[in-house]
Amino acid sequence: MITAYIQLLVMVILTSLSQIFIKIGSRKIITKRGAAILIKTFFNPNIITGMVFVAAAPLLYFSALSKVPLNIAFSVSGLGYIIVIILGRFVLKERITVFHIAGGLLILCGFMVWNMGAGLY
C-alpha cells in the first residue's frame, strides 16, 4: 500500500515537472515563419521531456489506482497545483501573489480535510 502512495506522489511530481518543461520549451516555439518551422520547433528537448513525463504519469496513476480508493488517489493529484506554484516561482521566476498563496493553502487544507478519515497522516 505504501508503494501506491509513492506512485501517486511521483505521478504528481512528474505531472508538475511536465508543466515546467513544456513552459520552458514553449518559449522556443517560432510561430511566424511557416508551418514547417513551427512543427520543427515543437521538437525541442524541453517539450520532449515534458511530453515523456506527461506520458509516464498516468502509468503510475493507473498502478496506484488499483490499490488505493479513487477518492484518495484523485485528491492527491490536487497537490500538483501547489507544486506548480512553487516550481513556477523558483524555476521560471514567476511572481507569486497573495492569491496564489491563499489558493495553495486552501488546496492543502482541502486535501487534509478530504483525507482525514483515510489515515494518510
Written account of the structure:
The longest helix is centred in the first third of the chain and has 25 residues, at 2-26. This protein has helices at 2-26, 35-42, 45-65, 70-77, 79-90, 98-114. It has one domain (2-118). By secondary structure, it is mainly α. It is flat. The protein starts with a helix and ends in a 7-residue tail after the last helix.
- The run of helices and strands is HHHHHH
- Class by alpha and beta content: mainly alpha
Helical coverage, percent range: over 70%
- Low-pLDDT segments, ≥5 res: none
How many domain regions?
1
Q: What gyration radius follows from the Cα positions, in whole Å?
A: 17 Å
Defining traits:
mainly alpha, single chain, 121 residues
Question: Can you summarize this structure?
Answer:
By secondary structure, the chain is mostly helical. It has helices at 2-26, 35-42, 45-65, 70-77, 79-90, 98-114. The two termini are 14 Å apart.
Topology record:
Blueprint: H1 2-26, H2 35-42, H3 45-65, H4 70-77, H5 79-90, H6 98-114
Helix pairs in contact: 1-3, 1-5, 5-6
